[in-house]
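Quick illustration, no need to memorize.
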Amino acid sequence: MSTHAPLPLEIDPATARTLRTENADTLFLDVREPFEREIVDLEPDRAVPYGEIPGAWNSLPRDKPVVVYCHHGSRSLRVAEFLRAHGVAGATSLAGGVERWAVELDPTLPRY
């Protein structure tokens, strides 16, 4: 059982980056399509396109944070809600997606 406070349903890019650097247990899940990952790659721990989540969610960890992200944050929010409803309590969405990550944290990333 985790002793960490539960994550909100959405987190901002700075919080996500902190989780990535300070919590090795955090899983980054990219739900964008392969062509999108070719444009901007945040080096996810796992990539499962949005439409494949219903067949893949059961293989995700239930005991650690799962930061879900997409282009603008709408697909990832739906996935985070779906995952939480299916027992992945640590699922959270990167608010604003890779677009907001690029604007706020890394302006060198391509935008699309």
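Residues 27-104 form a domain with the Oxidized Rhodanese; domain 1 fold (CATH 3.40.250.10).
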